[in-house]
Amino acid sequence: MISQAGKEIAQFRRDKLTLALAFLLPSVAMLLYGYATRLESKNIPVAVRNFDNGALSRDYIDTIFANGQLVNTPWHDPVHLRSAPTSVVSSSAMGPLDMGEAKATITIPPEFSRRLKQGQSSDIQVIIDATDVNNARVVKNSIIATTGYFLRSHKFNQVKSLVTTKVRLWFNPGREEALYVAPGATAVILWIFPCLLSALAMSREKEQGTILQLYASSISSFELVVGKALAYTAIAFVQALIVISMAMVLFGIRLVGDPYIYFISTLVFLASAVLFGLFVGTRANSQSAAVQMVATTGFTTALLLSGFLYPLRNITYPLSLICNILPARYFVEASRNAFVRGSDFSSQIHLPVALAICATVLLVGASRIMRKMQLSGGG
Fold first, then answer.
1. Model confidence pLDDT, tens digit, residues 244-259
2. Residue 329 vs residue 2, higher pLDDT
3. Could you tell me if residue 163 is inside a domain?
4. Which of the two residues, 82 and 162, has the higher pLDDT score?
5. Long-range CB contacts (< 8 A, 24+ apart) of 256-260?
6. Is 159 inside any structural domain?
7. Is 357 a domain residue?
8. Of 26, 119, 168, 254, which residue is least crowded by CB atoms under 10 Å?
């Protein structure tokens, strides 16, 4: 097994394209995932028409745009309404939405300031473009929250509430997206590229026919798989050092959880990724087929079903069952525990155990397939 691992390392060092695939592409992927993935909507354009123009209405508008999520955009009426009477124009609050210039429109009625000063209610019309459900939810919640703050700051809500709720954000009080995205991105990247490298290595042996020499030797299928797994797990560990270091330097994440459980989880997860690649490589007859299989069964599931982008509870049945057998799903949780939540050893011991079970199943599966191929002469 050690000899087989040494052989794989030597072949890896001689292949410059594989070296670039192993170390350059994960770095590029970390930059793309870290800087391009944004889960919280910001700078959503909102158009406001103020028919009151009083001090309170202007203060209300300033309050709405003070949080940075919404940005004030000019109100432009459609061409066919620009020459219409004022009464017709004022009744059309859909113009900026129809022209795609805003995601919501806010219409403040006349006498808004006077009615509030007299203790009377005043209705404000808000129309939201809900073609993007996430943006619509953000705009709605933002306007509701800022309206409540505006009323409290001007002491317009005189009726004392019987129930007062105090909300505190824990673990990530500043709502920094990097603390959520970067640990998850490391899990997805460290699943894709070690898996791809080992799958290409195994499928290359079959495609070039060099695996027949291994069949003729005294090495067993188990020793062959373990030897390759040792070599590419060591390479994957170097990849992990590069990717995690980039995440810590570029996005400011720091290890706040138990370092031992994270280290163990990382090693077992990398071994699982490599073994999955070897399993795919034993099934593929060419390198192109191996790449396609990794992209379909490895990358897509790790991206969509691991909890990196979407909470696992939002994944519908029966796809939710697949999440339980994905190693990336457990390592995403381990990474966020280590860099965000700061969980202790006992609360996350199940994560390396689950990863070890996945690695064992993949090792047995790849070894059995190799054994069948060896007995049949590589067919």
1. 999 999 998 899 888 9
2. 329
3. no
4. 162
5. 256/338, 256/339, 256/340, 256/341, 256/342, 257/337, 257/338, 257/339, 257/341, 257/342, 257/343, 257/344, 257/348, 258/338, 258/343, 258/344, 258/345, 258/348, 259/338, 260/345
6. no
7. yes
8. 168
pLDDT tens by residue, 38-80? 777 778 899 999 888 888 989 999 999 887 789 999 887 765 5
**What's the rounded Cα separation, in Å, for the pair 212 and 224?**
12
Q: Is the peptide bond before 318 cis (omega within 30 degrees of 0)?
A: yes
- The pLDDT tens digits for 267-286 are 999 999 999 999 998 888 88
Q: How confident is the model at residue 164 (pLDDT cuts 50, 70, 90)?
A: low
The burial of 144, by beta-carbon neighbours within 10 Å (0-12 exposed, 13-18 middle, 19 or more buried), is given as: exposed
- Beta-carbon contacts of 303 under 8 Å, excluding residues fewer than 6 positions away, are 188, 309
Last residue within a domain, chosen from 153, 185, 217: 153
Residue with tokens 């955009």: 73
Phi, psi angles (nearest 5°) of residue 154: -100, 10
- Which tokens belong to 40? 């919280």
**166 part of a folded domain:** no
Residue-by-residue DSSP string for 84-105:
S-HHHHHT---HHHHTTS-SEE
Indicate the pTM of the whole model: 0.79
Distance CA 87, CA 47 (A): 19
Same structural domain, 193 and 149? no
Q: Which long-range contacts (CB under 8 A, 24 or more apart) does 344-350 make?
A: 344/257, 344/258, 345/258, 345/260, 345/261, 348/257, 348/258, 348/261, 348/265, 349/261
Q: Which residue has the tokens 């965000």?
A: 340
CATH code for the domain in which residue 111 is found: 3.40.190
Backbone φ and ψ for 343, nearest 5 degrees, come out as -70, 155
Ranked by mean pLDDT, which of 208-217, 265-274, 359-368 comes out on top?
265-274
* Residues 6 or more apart in contact with residue 180 via CB below 8 angstroms: 39, 172, 336, 340
Grade residue 89 by pLDDT with cuts at 50, 70 and 90.
Answer: very low
Percent of the residues in the chain that have a pLDDT greater than 70, as a whole number? 89
Q: Which residue range is the domain that position 56 belongs to?
A: 44-153
